[in-house]
Design brief:
The protein is mainly alpha-helical. It folds into two domains: 1-101, no CATH class; 125-185 and 213-315, Cytochrome P450 (Cytochrome p450). It has helices spanning 13-31, 38-41, 45-75, 88-93, 104-135, 137-153, 162-165, 169-181, 213-217, 258-275, and strands at residues 187-191, 196-198, 201-203, 208-212, 276-280, 289-290, 296-297, 303-307. A two-stranded antiparallel sheet has the order 1-4. A two-stranded antiparallel ribbon has the order 2-3. A hairpin with a 2-residue loop joins strand 2 and strand 3 (201-203). The longest helix is centred in the middle third of the chain and has 32 residues, at 104-135. The model has no long low-confidence stretch (mean pLDDT 88). The chain binds protoporphyrin IX containing FE. Protoporphyrin IX containing FE (HEM) binds at residues 113-114, 117-118, 121-122, 125, 184-185, 188, 247-249, 253, 255-257, 260-261.
Amino acid sequence: MGRNLQIQLNENEAYTQAFHRSNELLFQRMTNPLLFLDIIYRLTPMYSELKKSLKIIHGLMSDIVRERQNYLATNGHATTTGKIGKTFLDTLLTPTNTGKVFSFQDIREEVNTFVLAGVDTTTSAMCYVLYALAKYPQEQQKVFEEMQNIQQSSKLPANVDFNELQKYKYLDLFIKECLRFYTVVPLTGRQTTSSTRIGERVYPAGVTVWINLYGLAHDPHLFEDPDEFRSLRFAEEKSLIAFSYLPFSGGPHICIGRKYALMIMKIMTIKILEQFQLVLADPQENLILMAEMVLKSKNGINLIFKEREKSSIINY
Ligand code: HEM
């Protein structure tokens, strides 16, 4: 969006808390049929808490949009130059070729969707990538060796770019397996718009159907030894059954940010592994995973970043 929120500093603590609390409250509602009817939900303290949290979130988003609107009004709309494109927010704020402009409300909704759908998911996914590197040292070794081999066999540009990333085949398999094993979005839903048959059952229009993405990723009928972390499963000949691997969901509402997310996760993994070896803080500790809007670890993810010996650091 072109605005650094400094979200990890105290200044925006209220926003961070509101963001996490609203996620918890929404997930509670999603998974409790007693809270389904608006007329009942509105009577609960959860509803007023949710309203309070959403007010904080909308407030910050509105400030960001307004601030940028004012900036563009004073400085003119940016044009795309060279490799640097416009930010997402600037694109929304720029009138289309036909002169159409989005309303303030529309823009805020879009910004909200992207922030809510893109930030916590990618952060969680990246935490599980780092955890898996530490938990499975042989996987970390393979990813690291691949990095070293690529460096030896070709001249690398100063920055890792999209084409360069295509060479990291094992890293790709590893991240695919991370996203299966730690299903970042464990549950999603769809509403039937007409009478719909799923297997033996027929659902009338207007029914919400929950889809257990975590269960799908750990179903032994779809993945051999699903509780084993094995990146190479994605390199095997056996093709995946359609719609069995859905870390980014599927169909018309498949994640719009999936390519971007994969790209930044790969870049971050490479950059971190260049400098550090990852080790579990307590090798005896097992993660206690909790389903929320995104998969959470009850006690956090406790890792040690061990600085690599200077001689093993890859110079890009
Ligand atoms: C590893 C990171 C990510 C994961 C695991 C993930 C997962 C998902 C999933 C499962 C859905 C579909 C939900 C459903 O079908 O009900 C979704 C939708 C969406 N995601 Fe992502 N996402 C990630 C990163 C991102 C990023 C970085 C962005 C934005 C830059 C983004 C933007 C969106 C949007 C806008 C939607 C809604 C699409 C629609 O309804 O048409 N996501 N994501």
